[in-house]
Amino acid sequence: MPAHGVLLLPTPLKLYPPLDSRSQTFCSLYHLTGSRNQKVSKLKARFWESIRSGILKNNTAQVIEPPSTVEEEEESLPEEFVLVERTSPDGTVEQIIFSSGGDVDVYDLQALCDKVGWPRRPLSKLAAALKNSYIVATLHSISKPAGEEGNGQKKLIGMARATSDHAFNATIWDVLVDPSYQGQGLGKALIEKLIRALLQRDIGNISLFADSQVVEFYRNLGFQPDPEGIKGMFWYPKY
Ligand SMILES: CC(C)(COP(=O)(O)OP(=O)(O)OC[C@H]1O[C@@H](n2cnc3c(N)ncnc32)[C@H](O)[C@@H]1OP(=O)(O)O)[C@@H](O)C(=O)NCCC(=O)NCCS
């Protein structure tokens, strides 16, 4: 999404969207459980916060800390994990790795942008944009032919990045999946995981600019135009 589009914000009620059955094949049970626990811990946290700030405002009663068990702790998303593993008939094993660690080669990214038909941007600016992003989430495919030693061939097949004020807001940019990997649920998984990584850092106000042809893709993920009609506005140079 290097161009401009419609500003979409996630639906507040869907900040932790339930993973559908296809996503479950991409995520281990750990992450599903983590998502439920996050909901429970957040609700409990809000409950205790409201007690502290409201009912006990003019009261000197001692605040009792909420009971905490290991199960109720928020399970954090690892920085890198295997999203999908599959074996083709010739025995080649392919893993698709999600990472929020920002490990992107700018030439690989440019090649990926070429594949989806985006206009080229200066490499130095692309590198600066990556370097100054808050989170750069990637999907890499690692293929290892049957019986072959070593690490396998690694290629960038998807990316999305978020810029942020590190406190309240984040905006998602440059969402793309290699055309030969599209339609497999990977774009959805990439954005879901990026949202989780942002929520884990307590960034709850997440927005993006959707090209008109992908509005439904984001709507499915819980994004919506601002309910109060706030519009994204642009200033373009006139020279
Ligand atoms: C948009 C993009 C990232 C989607 O990635 P993807 O891996 O193909 O998407 P998924 O397979 O995860 O699709 C998830 C769901 O969104 C739907 N979807 C995917 N692309 C869609 C689109 N363009 N419009 C509407 N729905 C779409 C899928 O049908 C699927 O629906 P389902 O869950 O009901 O089955 C990918 O098509 C892409 O890279 N496009 C080119 C670059 C681009 O336009 N980026 C967005 C710029 S704002």
From TrEMBL:
Annotated GO MF terms: N-acetyltransferase activity
Domain N-acetyltransferase as annotated: residue spans: 96-239
Record's protein name: Acetyltransferase NSI
UniProt GO cellular component terms: cytoplasm
Acyltransferase recorded as keyword: yes
Lineage: superkingdom: Eukaryota
Name of the gene this protein is made from: LOC105174689
Organism placement in taxonomy: Eukaryota, Viridiplantae, Streptophyta, Embryophyta, Tracheophyta
Gene3D superfamilies referenced in this protein's UniProt entry, alphabetically: 3.40.630.30
PROSITE patterns membership: GNAT (PS51186)
Sorted UniProt keywords: Acyltransferase, Transferase
Residues of the signal peptide: none
InterPro entries: Acyl_CoA_acyltransferase, GNAT_dom, NSI-like
PANTHER family hit by this protein: ACYL-COA N-ACYLTRANSFERASE, GCN5-RELATED N-ACETYLTRANSFERASE 2, CHLOROPLASTIC
